Amino acid sequence: MKKLLAASLLIAGVAFAQSGIAGGKDGLHQYNANTMGQWTFELGTGGNVSLDNWSLAKAGVIKDQNGQNFGVYKIDGSFAGNFNFAMGVFKWMDVGASQSLNYDYVGSSTGLEEVHHMSTIALGDLDLWAKFALPITKDSSVFSFAALLQVTAAIGETSAGVRPRHSWYLAPEGWYTNPYTANGPVVGLNAIMTADWTKRGIPLRWNTQVGFVYTVEDGYPNALTYSTGLNWFVHPKVDAFLEYSGEMRVSGEHYDISPLVDPMIVTPGFRFHLSRSLDLGMGLEVALRNVKNPLYKMKEEKKDINDFIIKRVDDHGHKSYYGYASTPLYAGAATLVYRFGGDDEDPAVLAAQSYAVDSAAQARLDSLLQARAMREDSLARTDSDKDGIVDLKDNCPKTPEGAQVDSVGCPIDTDKDGVADGIDQCPGTAAGVAVGPDGCEADFDKDGVLDSKDQCPNTPEGAQVDVNGCSVDSDKDGVADDKDKCPNTPAGVTIDETGCPLDFDKDGVADINDKCPNTPAGQVVDSVGCSLDGDKDGVPDGIDQCPATEAGISVDSVGCDLDFDRDGVPDSKDKCPNTLPGIKVKEDGCPVRKKENLDELKKGIQFKLNSAKLTKNSYGTLDDIVKLMMQIPEANLEIQGHTDELGSDATNQKLSQERAQTVMDYFVKKGVESNRLRAVGYGASKPVADNKDKAGREKNRRVELVPFQN
């Protein structure tokens, strides 16, 4: 939660040079062909924020190098921001810089995001740019054109984040993608066109741009960038805009070129001109990749996930894999720009506002003057407060009724207590004494003690007070008698807000007598506040759903017998505890059909002496197990290899692993998916019989088949 709060304090965004989100004057993702003017400066910040986990990875699925799913929460966040600066060097040339700051909030049930250092606030790349107004542009023309040169320095953090901030960050095959940096210099060239119809009295401006991004680092993709936006000047202080912008890779060694996979967003919003110097823009970014899956179905989202798998590694070597999400599905975006220096008014801004001036202004002024004259005439004949002074000459036109006034209609207050003579019932009040509306000394809390003597002037109404006006507290526990539900509490006892001994865990036993002060809510306790456990299974009676468990039996969190294979027979009575899902079993937990009993089938898996090669008699048994796995597609097996203790630990470990792997390889060869299997060698570490005699060693040389769940 702290990470989410810290990240929410960032104003997030992408470092597009002189687009609205990194400065500029229009919208959020638009490039304007107009230059700022010589020695005009801009300081700003801007960006976007999204709170859905699909803003981090496609379908919200992230796995580590062992294939374990991070278990990403549904509400996570993608945050990215920048701080930007720009200045007009000449009338026809602007330069600037934008430094991005990024944060991806990856919350999960497994905590793997902490291990992989994903949720870290980190710098992105530094973007430097220069914009040139082309000489074909004329001041009087609706159309203007400019060229923009960008150079990006790859200074971003390489071991943070999840979602790549640009399409050209995708690393070539065999490399790891850094979400916040291009891993090398980037050069961009953009062509910009602006059609400004405000010069013709029409409150519209249209900007469009196309650019090419070249990555110097070998293997990284080059890309096209594009944007277009229409601005409607609904008021001199407010613009409404609608934008379409995106990126499209045009090269790359590892991923197919697919424009619909790369960033592509539509952004409606408003831009507020708070003053001549300050702009605030806000909008909603909607990713067009929503069109492919408008109902947000996980199955649809996963269709092409393997075509764009991102590999990531942190600075400790932890690796992760997930589908490429180019942008959040939805994001709130904002920009704040402060402009100073140069001309007092930007000609483009004046033109945008000129449409709001009309001939009705003079008519409104005439109406105001006429209303003022009528009001003055009315005041010359009216005495609103009935104090004998007409309103036109009355400097205090709201004098209370009955108050004595001077020649200009203001109340006379001889004793200077704030209550006018005539309504002051105590006209000789001493200086500095607080009085009530009647001019007499006040008793603010109505406790019978005047404020000048009341040491507790805010006593609650009805409370019993002493001579100083303070509430009585007979047992000295800090709670006044009128609020104290336990007025005879012994000295030194910790109490709650009602004055009664504190019972922190609400179990009915006061903390002073409670030997178990943190008992969970709802549990039955004894006289000293500790949970009862009648069957001694470690689960308190209050939550024990099986309160008569026999001694020594392992139970689950609610106090009932464990059932590892979920076949309906508790482990304490189950003679075949590794039965696969859906298999029909007898009362003792063993399958009705022998060929469905893993504990029997495993006995038929034999190896040649001191070898990982299977005997010929083993293949029939293995084929029976393969058939069983095909019939139950949701079943997963861990093949465990075990040896006796003869030989060295290293030799036994190696032999047990090789034997388990041999069985797994056979299963995969026969069509069982590898992700449903795992081979583990335990050497001689888990004997089931005494290794001192031959019979015991034979039992210890075995293969176990244990189901597991993903």
How would you characterize this protein structure?
It is a single chain. By secondary structure, the protein is of the alpha+beta class. It has three domains: 2-354, Beta Barrel (Porin), CATH 2.40.160.40; 505-562, no CATH class; 594-707, OmpA-like domain (60s Ribosomal Protein L30, Chain: A, 2-Layer Sandwich), CATH 3.30.1330.60. Helices cover 13% and strands 25% of the residues. It has nine helices and 18 strands. The chain has helices spanning 2-8, 112-115, 298-301, 347-354, 360-379, 598-601, 618-631, 649-669, 694-700; strands at 40-50, 58-64, 77-90, 93-105, 122-133, 143-153, 186-196, 204-215, 223-235, 238-249, 264-273, 278-287, 309-313, 319-323, 330-341, 637-642, 677-681, 702-707. The strands form three sheets. Strands 1-3-4-5-6-7-8-9-10-11-12-15 form a twelve-stranded antiparallel beta barrel. It has a three-stranded antiparallel beta sheet with strand order 2-14-13, with no helix packed on it. A three-stranded mixed beta sheet has the order 17-16-18. A hairpin with a 5-residue loop joins strand 13 (309-313) and strand 14 (319-323).
Unreliable segments of 5+ consecutive residues: 1-17, 344-361
What is the first-to-last residue Cα distance?
A: 28 Å
Number of domains: 3
Q: Would you give the CATH topology of the largest domain? A: Porin
As an assembly, this protein is single chain
CATH superfamily of the largest domain: monomeric porin ompg
CATH architecture of the largest domain: Beta Barrel
* Run of helices and strands: HEEEEHEEEEEEEEHEEEHHHHEHEHE
